[in-house]
Amino acid sequence: MTPYPVYMPDGRIAPLLLTAEETCAFLRLEIPEGSDGRVTLEHYRRQCGLRATMFGRRVMFRLADVIEFIGRHAEEVRR
Q1: pLDDT tens column, 30-73
Q2: Taking Cα atoms as reference points, which of 69, 51, 70 lies closest to residue 60?
Q3: Helix (H) or strand (E) run with residue 43 in it
């Protein structure tokens, strides 16, 4: 976990367990009209190694796993 607070795009502190909707918002997935971003999120989960966990009957995403996923898949930008 990070030693500092992590914020959602809307300014709230990110919860430790994210719903699919919160994960889409956190990753700032582009949501085309008529879609909710879950197709991309499911692709990340099944094909790219984004870990998910079951909490009750819900698929949830641990904030630490999402941050680690970003670190693995972020490309370095050189100017």
Answers
A1: 766 666 688 889 999 999 999 999 999 999 999 999 999 998 88
A2: 51
A3: helix 38-47
Taking the C-alpha atoms of residue 51 and residue 5, their distance in angstroms, rounded to an integer, is 21
This prediction's pTM = 0.82
**Residues 53, 23: contact at Cβ < 8 Å?**
no
Cβ within 8 Å of residue 8, ≥6 positions away: 14, 22, 25, 26
Q: How many whole angstroms from its chain centre is CA 10?
A: 14
> What is the rounded distance in angstroms from the CA atom of residue 66 to the CA atom of residue 27?
8
For residue 48 the two structure tokens come to 């790219």
